Amino acid sequence: MSASRHSASWLLVAMLLVLTARFAAAHDVGITSVARVFIDQVGEGRYTLSIVDIGLPPIGDSPGVLPSGCQHLPDEGVRGSVGLFRFQCDGELMFDDVITLPWDLAGVVAIARWSDGTDASAYFRGKGNTVPVQLGGLLAGTGSGFRLAERYFVLGTEHILLGIDHLLFVLGLLLLVRGVGPLVKTITAFTIAHSITLAAAVMGLVTLDRGPVEAAIALSIVFLAREIVVGYSGQKHLVHRRPWLVAFVFGLLHGLGFAGALGEIGLRSADVPLALLTFNLGVEAGQLASSPCLSY
Prior knowledge:
The strands form two sheets. Strands 1, 2, 3, 4, 5, 7 and 8 form a seven-stranded mixed β-sheet that branches. Mean pLDDT is 79; it is low at 22-32. The protein has helices at 3-25, 145-161, 164-176, 180-202, 210-232, 238-241, 243-265, 272-295; strands at residues 34-43, 46-51, 70-72, 77-79, 82-89, 98-101, 107-113, 119-125, 131-134. The radius of gyration is 23 Å and the shape is elongated. With 296 residues, the chain is of the alpha+beta class.
């Protein structure tokens, strides 16, 4: 077996392992212990955290709970059946701030009510003896436009460089396409396609469960791996004759996966245009950065 066929075979095995991992991750984990909390913005830099469920220990002055620049205010008390925790921050809470609840729970359902009238809710899984509440998932403030653009550019880059599924797909395209011109055409088709579905999903025009989307992305990688192996045997299918068309179709699918990454952080409607632009730029930067390494 030639070195190229040997490499393609190992690529196929790696992609099948990714597929297995994707399906394993798609199973829901049973929730046995979940609390509910409300985060209310009651003034400029002032907030309350209300604990709905009884039996939970008070937060008090537990270290590491609040983000940097925030401090607990005295007179924590109980109002009816609700535990109340008050705190103040130097400025408004930002989307990359985290409140770390010191509870050994499966997770927390957090409901945020911001002073501008925006409401949001999300479920946050427990990690060890704490439950980190990522405030971006509750549509916290984004600060300056530069900070927003920087955050989503980095997020897009990380999603490519740290996402094994997307890296494998790019690697598959590099193995499949020969020549700089056809490769640029194929990557461009993939870029245009995932930009379309990413925008549609973020704006609510397309809504799909993330589990099936991730499984379908894994299947697309397995399909691409098979076509690479078939190509080395001398058979030529549509994917070999028009790789840009196949890249466009699968790009539509991968765009839905990118939308899931954006959804984890949360977007206010006013932030959508800039966030989409800089996230896409970050994705492309990640693809360009990874392509030379993968081709080597």
